[in-house]
Model the fold of this input.
Amino acid sequence: MAALRTVDDPELHKDLVTLNMVKNVVIEGSTVGVTVELTTPACPLRGKIESDVRAALMQVPGVAHIELQITAQVRSMFGGKPGKEPIPGIRNTIAVASGKGGVGKSTVAVNIAASLMLEGARVGLLDADIYGPSIPIMLGTNEAPVPTADNRLNPIHAHNMTLMSVGFINRQDDKPIIWRGPMVAGLLTQFLRQVAWGELDYLVIDLPPGTGDAQLTLTQALPLSGSVIVTQPAQVALSDAQKGINMFKQLDVPILGIIENMSYYPNPATGEKVYIFGKGGGQRAATRYGVPLLGEIPLDPEMSESGDAGVPLVIKNAASPLSVAFRDVSRQMAARLSVESYNNAIPLGVPIILDPNGGQGGPGNDPAQGHRPLRLG
Done:
């Protein structure tokens, strides 16, 4: 254990023992067995942690063999904000947004969700674009949800993910939904609260473009764990993306980072990167607003082909450069979310004070002592 205290989590900057990530140590002769529990199965620095653990243990006199098991337990963001109760069973909710349409936001959301699933996480995907739902087509299913015994809706399951979209209810592709804002808000609230989502590590929410009713409804009703902004290198897309960043900042939603989609076209003949829409726009926006650039996704016809076929590209062709880019982006995003979860978590050993009246007085509610009341109702 003393040796393991020398191994830091590269993202959280504290040692594994302090972070309670060492779950089991068994010593049999010269063999040491250790279980290390990561904060997400999509940890991008898993290899470094594993090598650091092995190196530290080999420094212990008498150790000749190491049996290391790496597991993961996704931690939940603290959701005790008044009027913003988390969805039961869902550990984290991630909003995927864009300032304007046409930047490939839904494609990014689908492949991020599928990437997290491939890493071993339990993943749900909510299509919050009521007027233009695309999840049913992109995931190749058009089932109708059936009610549960307690008058909720059972979600749809496809590609080992849990799904919900208005497209599963309005199953006529050519029939428009002509609703005012309050009706859209009402349906989104039902999707959040009256769908039997089950136990999920991540619920990825594909928002409609812009900064309108859907975005406001979600941020008012739900303690979002974080948001991701999808943009293109073109200035017109970046200008709208910056509005989305400012919106989430004003609504006190953590921004996990920016994803620059359609960054460049890899010339198949020469391998040269052709920057059709400009270069470096996502990085400039990330630098300006102090948020990470999670990754750059290249432009490739295979992307639209996989969407039309109803299979996420990361599942259809795992070896594709686009799939590799999406897997890396999902790991970076999951790592950022783990950092946000750790920074917002209640410290170990600090009691949670259940205060039905939301009062600030009474034993254990002194902010100076680090106690945070959890308001109910």
Q: What stands out?
A: The radius of gyration is 22 Å. The chain has two domains: 4-72, 93-344.
